[in-house]
Amino acid sequence: MTSLQPQEQIHQKEMDVLPKKSHIRSFWKFIKKNPAGFIGMLLVILSVAAALLSQWIAPFEPTKASLSSRLVPPSWADENGESAFLLGTDQVGRDLLSRIIYGTRISLMVGFLGVLISMVIGTILGLVSGYFGKWLDDFIMRIADIQLAFPFILFAIVIMSVLGTGIWKIIIILGLTYWVGFARLIRGQVISLKEQEYIQAARAIGGTQFRIIRKHILPNVLSSILVLGTMYIAEFILLEASLTFLGLGVDPTIPSWGGMLADSRNYVTTAWWTATFPGIAIMLTVLGFNLLGDWLRDRFDPNMKV
């Protein structure tokens, strides 16, 4: 009995090591098979980490100005060998790196909350329109057509000019405008799904309409909702930066990428870093969400596996 214990312990250790090796191999296989998806996931993780940890990783206060440090170029160390402004400073001496890190919070807040609002509205209306059809379908789709007839930027400029600027107003406008994409996508899928045999069987055994939608139809469209939502986050980040650049978005006192680009318009030729680094931040974040969305689409869409 005692002689078997060492062998059992060795066998147990081997069993403990195997799952770790299999996880590492699976992860490495995923990277080799989906390099673009991995890069997108990495960029998104870095953006989210910067937003959550901005208070601790930003080297300076993002709103602290110093005219003596105005338009300082990027450098690793100052004349005394101490740490300096890695990405330079803006026209009033604020640290560019700190403002970019804090600006991540605004961009992701607009992206995630705007998509959440449009996702909820679009999912509900898409399910109702596709499942019940008839006059409800016609009514909801005509509202969607009217919504699509208005260019978003023009619509947003009119609303923001009347109601004023603010981050929450941008989020609400985005959420109330982009629900159409979710509604039309889900409606098309529900029309196809409700004719499937398992849906007919659920009706035959007395399943209620609400239960059928919640238990059988909604789980089958969640992947499409996730993919479209990821794509829309990238688009919302660009739209927020565009509106803020035009002076109709986030308050100028709040660090945001669009505001930084707007402030740098007069210094592009003399201080290239004031516009370059915020632009790179927007590009990498949007690229990350787009690459992640492309990978999710390839992962969940059965037509892409043929």
Which structural class do the helices and strands define? Answer: mainly alpha
The CATH topology is MetI-like fold
Report the sheet with the most strands, covering strand number, pairing sense and barrel closure: none
Number of separate domains = 1
Quaternary: single chain
Extract low-pLDDT stretches.
none
How many runs of DSSP E, i.e. beta strands?
A: 0
Considering the protein shown, what is the CATH homologous superfamily?
MetI-like
Query: Compute the gyration radius: what is it?
Result: 25 Å
Give the overall pLDDT as a whole number. Answer: 83
Helix content: over 70%
Separation of the first and last Cα atoms: 55 Å
The proportion of strand residues reads under 5%
Question: Can you walk through the features of this model?
Answer:
The protein has twelve helices and no strands. Helices cover 73% and strands 0% of the residues. Helix 4 packs parallel to helix 8 and helix 11 (257-263) packs antiparallel against helix 12. The chain is an all-alpha fold. It has one domain (41-69, 83-305): MetI-like (MetI-like fold). It is globular, with a radius of gyration of 25 Å.
